[in-house]
Write a structure and sequence with these properties.
By secondary structure, this protein is mainly alpha-helical. The protein has one domain. The chain is built from six helices and two strands. The protein has a two-stranded parallel ribbon. Helix 1 runs antiparallel to helix 5. The longest helix is centred in the C-terminal third of the chain and has 21 residues. 9% of the residues are buried.
Length: 127
């Protein structure tokens, strides 16, 4: 019986994609808005003394969640369950929009990366 060949090692992309980071921020915003009724920035920075992010307007921040995990965790789960259909539809829309956006913007991004981003920020950052 013939020996199997060794699988090629998986290679990770060694660049930071600004576009992927922005879409990841969009998905994080959908989750924090659904479970904690606040945006990502307010969820992480409220109560830390870093910057003036304002009030969450009834939302739950990370520092509040750490201080009172039992009751706020239960509240976040109930809010998440009630907002689940809305979050699924928003996530689906964002995923479809991401694919369409990347297909449409592939050529302009290639030109911007080679002409502007790579000379300014190096080869480890791309759009």
């Amino acid at each position: 019986m013939a020996r199997r060949g060794k699988k090629a090692p998986r290679r990770r992309r060694k660049t930071f994609s600004i576009t992927n980071a922005l879409f990841s921020l969009g998905f994080a915003s959908i989750i924090t808005n659904g479970f904690f009724k606040t945006n990502v920035l307010t969820f992480f920075l409220e109560g830390t003394g870093i910057g003036n992010v304002g009030s969450s307007g009834g939302g739950i921040s990370l520092s509040e969640l750490i201080r009172r995990p039992a009751d706020l965790g239960e509240q976040a789960l109930s809010q998440g369950q009630s907002a689940l259909p809305k979050m699924v539809m928003q996530s689906f829309g964002l995923a479809v929009g991401e694919r369409v956006f990347k297909k449409v913007m592939a050529m302009p991004f290639r030109r911007i990366n080679s002409g502007i981003v790579r000379p300014l920020l190096g080869s480890s950052v791309r759009l």
